[in-house]
Amino acid sequence: MYLGFLFIYFIALSHGATIEDDNYSVYQGYKIIEVTPESNKQSKILEQFHEQQHKVPSVIFLSSTKLLNSPILMLVPPESEIELQSVLKSVKLPFRIIDDDVVTSLREERSENSRRRTPSRMDFESYHRFDDITEYLDDLSKKYPQHTALVPVGKSYEGRQMNAIRITDNSESRSTSDRKVIFIDAGIHAREWIAPATALYVIHQLVENFDSNRDLVKDYDWVILPVVNPDGYEYSHTKERFWRKTRQPNSFACIGTDANRNFDFHWGETGASSYACAETFRGPKAFSEPETQALKQILESFEGNCKMYLSLHSYGNYLLYPWGYESTLPPTWKDLDEISMAGANAIRSATGTNYTVGSATNVLYAAAGASDDYAFGAVKIPVSITMELSGAGSGGFDPPARKIKPFVEEAWIGIKAMAASVTKKY
Ligand code: 0X9
Ligand code: ZN
């Protein structure tokens, strides 16, 4: 008996997981269901059902869009399957079960996904834990003191130190406070692991491949915060793979706030839940989360100098600009469109991947209190873009390890093109 347990334990270890670490049993019996609305009526009913999840959460929307003929994925617990099916039947919307055993898929993916990086270098062959990421930034700042500096941003609810890295070309004579800034963040949503990986790839390119990318840092400093929500990120590694929110407890024993609904700009007006258990909970008040406060402060410290705010999310291949809280477009939307199109076109000609460009409300859905609207509307950063990266694997948030490299390389092509367009314009 004892030997049997020991054997299972070693098998688990040899697959890169520990028994204590197995975070997938919470999804026992869950399925991933895909629907593709083809008419406005079908799209509307699904939107209403999505809205309802803001109040009585059961089904987790893994992706959503207003565009017809685009697939929408849902994570469906066994007890909600019948309800969902009857909603879909009422508008003759066919569905496809794309995964009827989420637990097994996640376990299989996990064995190849999580490995520690080789000390002193970053690799893009697996997803890295928060401590590993912190250590990498630390290493870079020591190894390249002439080009990099750590910027302490704040502490997460569970006390994790959040650091951004500032990348600069020291041959410039202007003082730091006069330099223009491009600010990138990732990992506001815990489960979107490809986003921090992309932020790390941008850091790696700008610092470790400095000479090839010199032009991009000539007039601009880059400040990059690779994980905005470290508590959630770690929780999605160790407990619930599809965790989205922060980890600060709320009423009704429900934990976490959707950090991308917690910013004080039209806070809570649309597409955000006032219900603490919902996936899109806006928080008990604006900036209730230490992580969103930290992001607000660092953004405000670059007020006037920061010309582009780019927030990395996944997934769906979208480049979204304001507004995200209402369908009206801001007066400068043509500039925003031109810069986003530069990114989309660069990616399309390099790899053929198609990024959809448009305002967040018009392309996806209205959701107020997000960081992109705050950066644009409150901090007055002239270019604010949310980039929804490529998806793959379970529910779209688990691109297999071998896809990390091509995905982050592709994103970098788009980011470079957008940055080039910004530095020319501002
Ligand atoms: O809903 C979100 O926060 C973002 N999509 S995600 O699938 N990564 O969760 C989109 C945010 C777009 N911006 C605004 N609505 N302001
Ligand atoms: Zn997101």
Kindly describe this structure.
The chain is built from twelve helices and twelve strands. It has 426 residues and is an alpha/beta fold. The strands form two sheets. It has an eight-stranded mixed sheet, sandwiched between helices. A four-stranded antiparallel sheet has the order 2-3-1-4, covered by helices on one side. The protein has helices at 2-14, 40-53, 81-90, 102-113, 130-143, 194-208, 230-238, 290-301, 333-351, 360-363, 371-378, 401-425; strands at 31-35, 60-61, 72-76, 95-99, 148-155, 161-167, 180-186, 220-225, 306-314, 318-321, 356-359, 383-389. The protein has two domains: 2-102, 2-Layer Sandwich (Alpha-Beta Plaits); 112-425, Aminopeptidase (3-Layer(aba) Sandwich). The longest helix has 25 residues, at 401-425. The N and C termini lie far apart (69 Å). Helices cover 36% and strands 16% of the residues. It is globular. Helix 9 (333-351) crosses helix 12 (401-425).
